[in-house]
Specification:
Blueprint lengths: L2 H4 L8 H24 L2 H6 L13 H8 L15 H5 L5 H20 L11 H14 L1 H7 L7 H7 L4 H5 L1 H4 L24 H7 L1
Helix pairs in contact: 7-8
């Protein structure tokens, strides 16, 4: 089928039908854009600030435990590891933003659909990314001293070896990792303000 034949359907529609389709497409795109804006997807996709990850409140325990860990950075914004430093691949920009987009949409689906687990665990692909970043940041330690960095995540699983967090699980997020493990997390987490206008909030109250 030629491209011009594919677009020939527009000749079958009346002027009123074309306008109707454009209006429907505009409404769908507008509502989709508004939905993504209210979810603050732009802060997640473009930014590098860990506070963007707590747009979903289920991440507050992980922000709180990270902020008190040796990997966290609160006072000095030049030191420490951010969420993206550990949880996003750094091979190139395509991998970086592609992974963020896919992972962000997946997290959004879990959050909106209330499908999150009490104890969130990394999936195999995320585990590979995290371990690659462990090796990347601790290159000298992993390649010259303990030699762990000579094998990647999948190789460790295939050979029955240990991955980094088998020994260092408590370093980035503490020993207790669940939505109920840090009941006071919201006190130390920069939660985003409500997107509901003040006048509408008063009407609902």
């Amino acid at each position: 089928m030629k491209l011009k034949d594919f677009f020939a359907f527009k000749d079958w529609l009346s002027y009123r039908q074309k306008v109707g389709l454009l209006v429907i497409a505009g409404v769908v795109c507008g509502l989709g854009g508004l939905f993504m804006y209210l979810l603050r997807a732009h802060t997640y996709f473009i930014g590098d600030n860990p506070s963007a990850c707590v747009n979903c409140h289920i991440m507050t325990p992980y922000y709180a435990t990270w902020s008190h860990s040796s990997h966290g950075r609160i006072d000095n914004q030049k030191n420490g590891a951010t969420c993206n430093d550990c949880h996003v691949p750094h091979q190139n920009l395509a991998f970086y933003y592609g992974f963020k987009a896919v992972d962000g949409l997946k997290h959004t689906a879990y959050f909106v659909g209330h499908m999150e687990h009490q104890a969130i665990k990394a999936e195999p692909l995320t585990g590979q990314v995290v371990m690659d970043n462990c090796i990347r940041c601790h290159t000298q330690l992993n390649t010259e001293f303990v030699k762990t960095g000579r094998l990647g995540y999948m190789q460790q699983l295939a050979t029955g070896g240990k991955v980094c967090w088998d020994c260092h699980r408590n370093v980035p997020h503490g020993g207790m990792n669940s939505l109920m493990a840090t009941p006071n997390a919201e006190g130390v987490t920069p939660l985003p303000p409500s997107p509901v206008p003040e006048w509408l909030q008063k009407m609902m109250d």
